[in-house]
Amino acid sequence: MIYKETKIGLIGFGSVGKQLYNMLLENNYPEESIYIFADDIALDINERCNKFNDFKLDVYKDLHYIPTLGYLSKNLKYEILSYLKEQEYNIFTFIHPSAFVSKSAKIGKGVIIYPLCNVDQGVVIEDGTIILNSSIIAHDTYVGKCTYISPGVSVSGFVSIGELSFLGTASTLANNITVGRKSTIAIGTCLTKSIGEGSYVIGNPFQFKQNIELS
Is residue 215 part of a domain? Predict the structure, then answer.
């Protein structure tokens, strides 16, 4: 839920930051209550634009922060979230009004859930995860911290996804499998078996690769 009186600090202003900024405005959130922390800001909103690390300044301690870093900066996002929690900062979570999230699902801090997503009963989404448009997370699935779930992903029931993983657009995960932390599942992949930490997989049927470069 978005509270209009809450001042929000977006840490980072790449694609994810700009998307969240626009989603807030589209949902009638007051522009003057949004602060941006980035070193390459393209908007001219004066005192509400700040250098990336200025979020650590005491003058901004009352903001509700959300790291809006994308899949190429998952490790940095992880570090920032840890810092925010250690320093007892307020952390903002955004769930788009068009998304369905079961009342029994547990959503962590700093999570962003985009339009038309479906998060089923018993699901656990840990801190800092991004779930992009029209993705489905079926019942009793666990998603670790700072995982990036691209548009149109389908995750079946009783799946466990390790932290800092990447799921490419339109990838599909079968029931009752485990994805090791820091794994990469490429676009359109159909994953039918468990994979270990740091795995790279692509295709249908899926194949292991030594590396998959994300650009």
Answer: no
Q: Give one word for 202, left, alpha or beta, with left for phi > 0 and alpha for psi -120 to 50.
A: beta
Q: What is the DSSP string of 37-98?
A: E-SS--S--GGGEE-GGGGGSGGGTTSEEEE---GGGHHHHHHHHHHHHHTT-EE--EE-TT
Residues 116 and 177 reside in one and the same domain:
yes
Confidence of residue 68 (pLDDT cuts 50, 70, 90): very high
Q: How many CA atoms lie within 13 A of 73 on its CB side?
A: 16
Q: Which three-class secondary structure state does DSSP give residue 5? A: coil
- What is the rounded CA–CA span in Å between residue 178 and residue 38? 35
170 exposure class (CB count in 10 Å sphere: 0-12, 13-18, 19+)? middle
Handedness of CA 83, 21, 74, 176 (dihedral sign): positive
Does residue 211 carry a pLDDT above 70? yes
Do 99 and 184 lie in one domain? The reply is yes
Residue 38: closest CA among 64, 58, 18: 18
Degrees to nearest 5, angle at CA 118 with 36 and 124: 75
Q: Give the mean pLDDT of 97-120.
A: 98
pTM of the model: 0.95
174 found inside a domain = yes
Q: Are 152 and 133 in contact (CB under 8 A)?
A: yes
Quote the CA–CA distance of 105 and 47 in Å, as a whole number. 38
